[in-house]
Amino acid sequence: MDNNKIRWVDRSRITKYWYCPRARFWQYEYKSKGIVKSTTSLPLYTGTCIHDSLATIATFHKEGAEVPIDEIVKLAFDAMKQELMEASEGEVGAHDFAMEQSSLVEGLIRGFYKHTWPILMDTYPKIVAIETEMTYDLGDDVKFMAKPDLIVEDKEGELVYLEYKSTSSKKQEWVDSWNTAVQLHSSIKACEQSLGRTPAYVQILGLYKGYVSYGKQSSPFVYGYKRSGNPPFTQDDIKYEYKAGYKRSPVWEMDGGVKAWVEGMPSEVLSNQFPMSPQIFVDQDLVDAFFRQTKAKEAEIEIASRLINESPEDNQGLLDKIFPQFFEKCQPAYGYPCEFRKLCSSHVEDPLNEGFQVREAHHTPEMDQFNGS
Predict the structure, then answer these.
(1) Is residue 12 part of a domain?
(2) For the chain, what is the domain count?
(3) What pTM value is reported for the model?
(4) Contact predicate 329/23, CB 8 Å
(5) How far apart are the C-alpha atoms of 251 and 226, rounded to whole Å?
(6) How many other CB atoms are there within 10 angstroms of residue 232's CB atom?
């Protein structure tokens, strides 16, 4: 099969189309490769730092080596802080914000390693694959790419797919939503075709970031609550959760920093930061429908994209038909505004001169295709 004729798809671009077809065009189809903002969004960078760190923990464990957790979290903390400080360009309050978000990342990684990782390794003693590229052939030169966070075996030798999700919600609705997250279930088919074995089920491992309240990140990994004492009669008292009469205090300014704070965190507080879904079993009818519809839609997208890129002025109608704008996504009441709203709302001669850059492929098969190999 000619690699240049293959249309590689993954769940990110499929769900991007569900979010807004026009955003899908800009990010994945514009001039055949797509474009992205030159600066990485905070949620994406946070997720990347966490996922890379957890993959490193798993790699050391798989190789039978001691996990250098202090080194791992330092790399993540420093990378997060540097990224935010460089992006701030000297804004007022930039240092405190960078310390807040870097401490959040450190706390989540340390907390996960202390609380969740031992449970996982006791339940699933064998690591099979860590962020390994896997594909599923839909036919007609369309292939689905997946890179599962972690594939493990339980004590009975059953294959299990574990997925990390940093989240700002830990409500039951968030947990239940994964039962019908077809783009997640579909990755099992890639596992099956690549490994020759089918995972028995999927489990979501949440890392709760908390929410923003009055401009501050609400998370026990970032802020504690302190009541100043009156030595020698009374000493300072610090709580992990809010209590009347106590003032919010940054964890990174406390004795021992984030490391000591996490080590002393009560187990009930720590466990609440890492929601886990129950075992999720694949709905085969759902997956079959997903791939059937994906294959049909991608054939339509491929033809439309090629015509639009060849002659954009002559194919505005095709752009509107296949990649319509979902205007409510431009500046939603909740969540982040669309990164492409400037391109949709004004005439831009060259997006590369307006804070965008050519998208880099993050899956090896597509990367090889971009490089012509």
Answers:
(1) yes
(2) 3
(3) 0.90
(4) yes
(5) 10
(6) 6
